[in-house]
Amino acid sequence: MSNKQPPPFDSEFYRNILESLEDYGVFTTDKSGIVTSWNRGAEHVLGYTEEEICGQEAAVIFTEEDRANGVPEHEFAEALEKGRGVDERYHRKKNGVLFWASGLVFPLFDGDNQHIGYTKVLRNLSRRKEAEDEALEARRYAQSIVETSKEPILILNADLTLNSASKAFYKLFNVDKAEAENTNLFELLGKQLPIDPLREEMQHYDSFENFELIYPGDHSREDIVLMVSSRKVFQTFKSIGQILMSFEDVTLRRKLEQAREDFINVASHELKTPISVIKSYAQILGMELKDTSNEVVSKTIDRILVQSEHLIKLTSMLLDASAITTGDIKLRKEPFVLLGLILEVAEEVNLSNTKHHVKIDDVVDAVVCADRDRIGQVLTNLLTNAIKYSPDADLVTITITIDETGQKVRTSVIDHGIGVAPENQAGLFKRFARSENVKTRKIQGFGMGLYISAEIVKLHDGQIGISSSGQGGSTFFFELPLFRPSDEAAQ
User: Are residues 320 and 340 in the same domain?
Assistant: First the structure.
């Protein structure tokens, strides 16, 4: 190796290097800290020209507090002792403005390896500091919201330790704030909750909503039903992310829902018999008076029969909905040819409807193992829906197709009616849902048919859906698993 020493600092070689670093403030001082050279980058960062600053103490770029505490001298001493001095602090420009910067200080030696001064490299980090401060302020603001929330909310660090939480959280789980902070969530709640399902959910999903968790009761209180939601937040360049988690007590809501279901179930059962009796009496009365010429009486009886049938359908739907909600619906599955059922239902609809014609196209010979009556109910609901919402058309088409995998059969009901806008399609299969199209407001309906159909299809491990642009009609479809003879042998 060569023992040749580098040229002295004030050589043309070093000066060219310094002047080329326009994005960094680079300057040198003598051993006492007096500035001896100043590059264009230093002029840009600090505002002093080389003529203005050379001969002054380098300490002029530090804050008054740092100068009073001997920070400049400490940097030089550290550089001389350790080979470099490092700092990250506020510095002062010529106009007095403070800015955040990082600095590196190195000792300078001449050709004889004698200490002659120092070099400082300064980089303006104001933008990064502002971003960090904004992120910190946002984090503190969010934490203050969490801590003052009336709901059980918490913020977890990336390692799932508790960062902060609301008073409602500590109260719900009866844990001490000082002991809970920086404690792992599962360690904190593991003694009170069946925590493994929540742990598994968090391992599989970064964010989730309405995950049900039961908080077991004791002699002093009953079980609490909690809905847990989680979402990652605060992902910045300095944070790998924190987690915002909320616990919603839905115990009372569940009780009210159960009470409502019980009421609907009881009311539907109690109404079904008297409504049927009213319909029967009206039919008898109509037969007795059929030879009379009293038009008012005849129309009144007809209206009683129509409204009775309307109420019978309503009570049947409510009973079905209640059975679905409580899990009491029973399926009698057996293999059957789907096309045969579709032909029967289409014929019944064509006989009862004089304006619309149900046409069957693109059929395949598919066998499914399902509850024939319930699938017939689904198909009837979809056909009734198609006829009801296509008042200006006269054709409804049914198609049967096999998917590409050969595992499922799709039945589609295609109408040429008013259509359903894409933004309104997601809620169509919920209870009491109705299309938001203004053209449907005068069309009667319970908002139950599609919900019941969807639930029946789900019970058959199938899928239901809609395809519509919002104009020119809709295609409602449901898919069922195809039945193979080997399926029966395996059972």
Answer: no
Average the pLDDT over 126-153 and give the result: 67
Q: Where are the beta strands (DSSP E) in 418-474?
A: 463-467
pTM over 0.85, yes/no: no
Phi then psi for residue 385, to 5 deg, are -65, -45
Domain annotation covers residue 4: no
On whether the CB atoms of residues 187 and 175 are closer than 8 A, the answer is no
**Which two three-digit tokens encode residue 146?**
């969490």
Cα–Cα distance list, 283 to 272, 299, 309, 326 (Å): 17, 12, 12, 35
The DSSP call for residue 151 is S
Average confidence (pLDDT) over 450-457 = 88
Q: What is the pLDDT of residue 263?
A: 67
Check if the beta carbon of residue 362 is closer than 8 Å to that of residue 402: no
Q: Same structural domain for residues 346 and 482?
A: yes
CA distance 443 to 420: 14
Q: For residue 175, give its domain range.
A: 130-249
Q: Is there a domain that residue 3 lies in? A: no
Residues 386 and 378 sit within 8 Å (Cβ to Cβ): no
Distance CA 211, CA 230 (A): 9
Q: What is the Cα–Cα distance from 229 to 243, expressed in whole angstroms? A: 10
* 185 contacts 156 by C-beta, under 8 angstroms: yes
Does residue 5 belong to any structural domain of this protein? Answer: no
